[in-house]
Every structure is written in C-alpha cells, then in structure tokens.
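So, can you check this one?
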Amino acid sequence: MSGLDDTHDPALRSWVESANDPATDFPIQNLPFARFRRAGSSEAWRIGVAIGDQVLDLCLAREQCSWGRVASAWLVPLAAGDLAAFMALGPGARRGLRAVLSVALREGSDRRAALEACLVPQSAAEFALPCRIGDYTDFYTGIHHATAVGKLFRPDNPLLPNYRWVPIGYHGRASSIVVSGTPVRRPLGQLKGPDDAAPHLAPTQRLDHELELGFLIGSGNAQGEPVPVTQAEDHWFGTVLLNDWSARDVQAWEYQPLGPFLSKNFATTISPWVVTPEALAPFRVAFERLAGDPQPLPYLDSPGNRAAGAFDIVLEVGLQTARMREAGLPHQRLMQSNFRDSYWTIAQLIAHHTVGGCNLGAGDLLGSGTQSGPGEGQGGSLLELTQGGRQPITLASGETRTFLQDGDSIELRAHCERPGARRIGFGCCEGHAIAAVKPL
C-alpha cells in the first residue's frame, strides 16, 4: 500500500528552478493535474501538470516530444482536455505517466529543450473544473466537527449512535460545483426564527464555510458489484480541496427529517489541482480508532487499511474581508487541523458507497465532511469557531465576524510534510461571497 519509488526521492530536483524552492506546493515529487488554458485566450481547454510556479501544457508536450507508444496513448485524452477519460484508464496509466513525466522534468533530462516551450506560468493561466463532475456525495467523517456541532444542538447527546458504525453521507448537487476563484452568491432560503409565527423567504444571514477534502473517482464499478475495501483505492484518482458552503439558518429550518437541501445546494468550491494518491504515498499513517470505540464492520476493515489507510495532511482556513483586501492585508488564518483525525478512510468511503450496489463513475466526487481538529480553535467552520454565532472572531483589521458578509473571501490550503520526504501542497481553494439576488 506504500507505493514508494524513485519519483518520491526527496533529493530529486527539476530543471524548472521554481520547483526546487522548499516552500513550493508543487515540487517534482507532486505533479498534480489541472484543466487550464492561457488566460484571456480562446484556445481549447487542456490538461496540465504543475511544476513549481509553472504548468506543463500536456497538449503541447505531446506534440513537441516523442513519448513512445504507450505514453503517447495516455496523453491523447489529456491533450484533448478530457481528464475523466484518462481517469477511467485506472491506476496503471496514472502511475505510468507520473514516472514518465518525473524523468522528463528532472535535472539533466534530454527533454528539457523541447519542454521549456510547453511551460505556462500559473499566473498567466485560467482554470476550469478538472473534469465534469458526474455525481457528488458529501460524507461526515470529521468526528470532532460532528461532536462540536452536536453539542450546539444536543448538549446531552451530541453524537448520534450510528456515527461510529456507518460512514454518514448525503447526496449533494453536482451542477453547482465550481472551481476556485468563482464568486459565490449569497443564497435565498426559508428562514424561521424561534419566535416567528411562519417562515419567510430571505437571503441567509448565516453564510458559512466548511473545510473539506474531495476525492475524485477514477475507474468506476458496475451497478450491483460492490468494491471491496482492499480494492477501493484503485478506484480513487486524486484529491482536491473542497469548501462545502452552508447557509446555517436555512439549514436549521429545513434539515429535518431528510437533511440539508437549499442550505447546501447553491455552491461547492473545489481547488483546480488534483493531487494523486502517488504524491500522497510518503504521508500515509496508520488508521486508528479512539480508545473504547468499536472497530469497523468486516466489509470496512482490512490489515492494509489499518496499517496505512490514513493520511497526514495539514489543513488551514483563512479569511479576508473587503476592507482587509483594500488595505493590502492577506487572508488571516482562522484555524488548522489534520486529515489524519478523520474517523473514516478514503477506502472505507468507497467501499461503503458501493456496498449496496451503487455504481460510481469516472469524475464522481466524494466530500470528506468538515475536518475539524480536537483542540479549541480547530473548528473547520465558523459555526464551531464562533459557538453558533455567540462568540465573534476579531480580525487584524479590527472587524469582527460571526458568519460571512458580502465581500468576504475564504481560502483553504493544505500541505504534507515529514522528515525524509519532500513537502508538497494542494494550491489554493478560494471563493468570495457576493450579494444575494432580490427575494422573489
């Protein structure tokens, strides 16, 4: 399950000098995919690979170099901007292309002269969703988030009894998933205060973010054929940052008995870069349950998942108001947590999603649920950080926030680092709130 090879060598350097910067998210050991084109151009979307502060244009790279029969075939859908078609080829194609690109981008590569002309500065590129999102399921794997939110509404019974046994999830809305940088319009919904005689339609006053990871499915499974937990990671293509925007006041009124609807379906933002399982391989850790908690049912358990099914990924949220932006102040970090605290692994999510016969397809997206940490101030949403709006956060500009105001920007970031491995990151997942439309 470790999957370590020479592409992970921390001493490996690239002829793209910015990739050798210790602070970059995109050293040669990472090589994530994105769908892009040159900003302001009318050229067709194509798939690129991040290397330092550049994007390697795989459409041009396919034309400029001789790659051999197999690698050339892998590059065909990528040159056409069809990441989903490449994803459907399975993990062998992904691992193989990673090895080929790693060699081509290393110091001393004989392909440097040809590939230099295929680099585009990331600052000169615009990005789209990595692929068409066929379907979207949002899970609830953050036990610290589930407990904190539960305490706000059920102080004596914050965690429902099924939580420790079943990966809780709900089917979200794929059509409103947008790429980082897309404005998010404040949604309308039914609101009802505790003293209101009837609900009314109005813009949400409790717009919130949720810090999550998203997992893109590569090769799918046939309907009626569950994916065993031992094979589940073969169906996982890569990981993105994900902001599951939420309208908390709408949610409070509508979520019983069936769960969230308008409070969640208006927007979900994901980062453009898809970080592959291979890039994350050095950062695997043991999957361990809290003392006294039940062990997973057999279909969700395996020796490999217990030994190395979790990942050490540091997650952060930053907030920038319009006033901060005008003053040149950067996003202010609100919290930090780690995905290793997730109550369920990626393999378990895929195994559970399919155990009843559900068929997943290339491009389907699974959200992790909010990744809060166990400590004070590690909430992955403003709902937690402000104790349901009762404790405002004071920002560097002197402003306070309980929930998001129009003009506010939320930025998600993540990285992995440990001794003996090269630090890698996920880039940025950013979205800013804009005013609601006039109520009907």
Q: What stands out?
A: Residues 91-105 form the longest helix (15 residues). The chain has two domains: 6-128, 136-434. Residues 6-128 form a domain with the SH3 type barrels. fold (CATH 2.30.30.230).
